[in-house]
Amino acid sequence: MEEHPELMPLLTVSGGAMRGLTFRVGQEAQVIGRAPTADIVLADPHLSRRHATVRATPEGVLLTDLGSTNGTWLNDTRVTGSVAIA
Asked: What pTM does this model have?
């Protein structure tokens, strides 16, 4: 799938100032956060510098909280450990 990026899962920001931005999710874990060194940088004061990771697996996309201050939430449920999102 990596040789065909158009087939990789697409992560879309659904709210806030960055609403509508999209990111392709690869097989390597991608860090989401405010830090300029994050793979997916989101300018949101509620995010930690290194907030969570996403990565594509054969079972689907996994979301993992990195011990963020405000927690990572999926459909109103706090994420502990890794959870499949797709």
From this structure: 0.85
Task: Give the span between the Cα atoms of 7 and 80, in whole angstroms.
Answer: 28
Task: Annotate the chain with three-state secondary structure.
Answer: CCCCHHHCCEEECCCCCCCCCEEECCCCCEEEECCCCCCEECCCCCCCCCCEEEEEECCEEEEEECCCCCCCEECCEECCCEEECC
pLDDT tens-digit readout, 25-46: 999 999 999 999 999 999 889 8
Token reading at 19: 């609403």
